[in-house]
């Protein structure tokens, strides 16, 4: 029998993984279809709930379903799982794009600031060159030209200083944004791969594992709970039968240990099996039972066990 702590762990893990997967999928699908976000959230939420219920139902009733229902329900679970994976992909890619877009915008802004700096510096060089072109023999005109350009040069230098401050702020902002995608940048540099390719493969890995694992955990937890419930029912039935047998004078003739009637760790008794087991015990206590009936009782009991 599956231990209690494993059953509790499976239930908690199934709840956490399925809830997070459903949340990521619902939000991601809403981002993909932003024109009708609320409607998409409602639709995706209902499909997520139906998927897990259908998966658990298929597991419990697989042997009694007809082939058409098996095929249809199985394909429905697979398609819904694919939709969930698409939603998770959209959520994770949107989270990456929100950081990478800010980084690209800051880089563009930084490049523009540096171009403005270069333009102002070029203008200063042009003005100085125009003054230097005046012959030294015309010293008065040269001094006059120098005085004329001096205010322009000072204004341009002031603008360059302001741009230096803006460039520093932009670089600091870029560093702040890089903290969000720093590990991805590190991986891309070490493997000499573009960062977008790294993100794509990582998202594919998450998508491949997330929803199938959630479905498996839901099925495993329901099976574990049902297994423990059947085990408890059979144990109570056996205890009740042995209690009744101790009040009968024929109990000494029943040479069977109590533990022999309990199912093994990998064996689950249904309700019908438990009823048959109880009837066999009652027949065993009857004094007037014939040898043929005793033989049939033993055979039926071995089949149940």
Radius of gyration: 39 Å
Care to count the β-strands?
0
> What is the structural class?
mainly alpha
Query: Helical stretch count?
Result: 7
Cα(first) to Cα(last) distance is: 15 Å
The dominant shape is rod-shaped
The biggest beta sheet is recorded as:
none
Secondary-structure element pattern, one letter each:
HHHHHHH
Low-pLDDT segments? 249-262, 265-272, 284-289, 300-305
Tally the structural domains.
2
Helicity range of the residues? over 70%
Q: Averaging pLDDT over every residue, what do you get? A: 77
Beta-strand fraction estimate:
under 5%
Element layout with pairings:
Layout lengths: L3 H29 L4 H25 L5 H66 L6 H52 L4 H52 L24 H14 L6 H14 L1
Helix pairs in contact: 1-2, 1-3, 1-5, 2-3, 2-5, 3-4, 3-5, 4-5, 5-6, 6-7
Can you walk me through this structure?
The protein has 305 residues and is mostly helical. It folds into two domains: 220 residues, no CATH class; 57 residues. 83% of the residues lie in helices and 0% in strands. The protein is built from seven helices and no strands. Helix 3 runs antiparallel to helix 4, helix 3 runs antiparallel to helix 5 and helix 4 runs parallel beside helix 5. The chain is rod-shaped and about 135 Å long. The C terminus is likely disordered.
Please supply descriptive tags for the structure shown above.
305 residues, single chain
Summarize the structure.
This protein has 305 residues and is mainly α. The chain is built from seven helices and no strands.
């Amino acid at each position: 029998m599956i231990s209690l702590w494993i059953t509790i762990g499976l239930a908690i893990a199934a709840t956490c993984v399925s809830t997070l997967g459903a949340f990521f999928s619902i939000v991601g699908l809403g981002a993909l279809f932003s024109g009708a976000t609320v409607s998409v959230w409602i639709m995706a939420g209902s499909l997520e709930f139906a998927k897990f219920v259908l998966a658990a139902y298929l597991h419990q009733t697989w042997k009694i379903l007809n082939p058409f229902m098996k095929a249809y329900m199985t394909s429905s679970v697979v398609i819904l799982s694919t939709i969930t994976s698409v939603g998770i992909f959209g959520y994770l890619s949107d989270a990456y794009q929100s950081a990478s877009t800010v980084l690209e915008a800051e880089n563009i802004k930084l490049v523009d600031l540096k171009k403005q700096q270069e333009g102002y510096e070029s203008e200063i060089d042009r003005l100085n060159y125009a003054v230097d072109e005046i012959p030294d023999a015309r010293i008065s005109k040269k001094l006059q030209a120098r005085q004329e350009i001096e205010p322009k040069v000072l204004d341009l230098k002031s603008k360059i200083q302001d741009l230096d401050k803006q460039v520093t702020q932009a670089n600091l902002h870029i560093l702040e944004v890089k903290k969000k995608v720093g590990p991805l940048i590190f991986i891309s540099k070490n493997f000499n791969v573009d960062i977008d390719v790294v993100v794509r493969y990582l998202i594919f890995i998450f998508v491949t594992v997330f929803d199938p694992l959630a479905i498996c955990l839901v099925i495993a937890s329901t099976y574990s709970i049902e297994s423990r419930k059947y085990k408890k029912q059979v144990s109570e039935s056996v205890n009740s039968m042995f209690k009744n047998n101790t009040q009968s004078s024929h109990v000494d003739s029943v040479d069977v240990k109590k533990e022999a009637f309990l199912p093994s760790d990998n064996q689950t008794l249904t309700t019908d099996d438990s009823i048959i087991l109880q009837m066999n015990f009652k027949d065993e206590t009857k004094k007037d039972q014939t040898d043929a009936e005793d033989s049939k009782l033993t055979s039926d009991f071995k089949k149940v066990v």
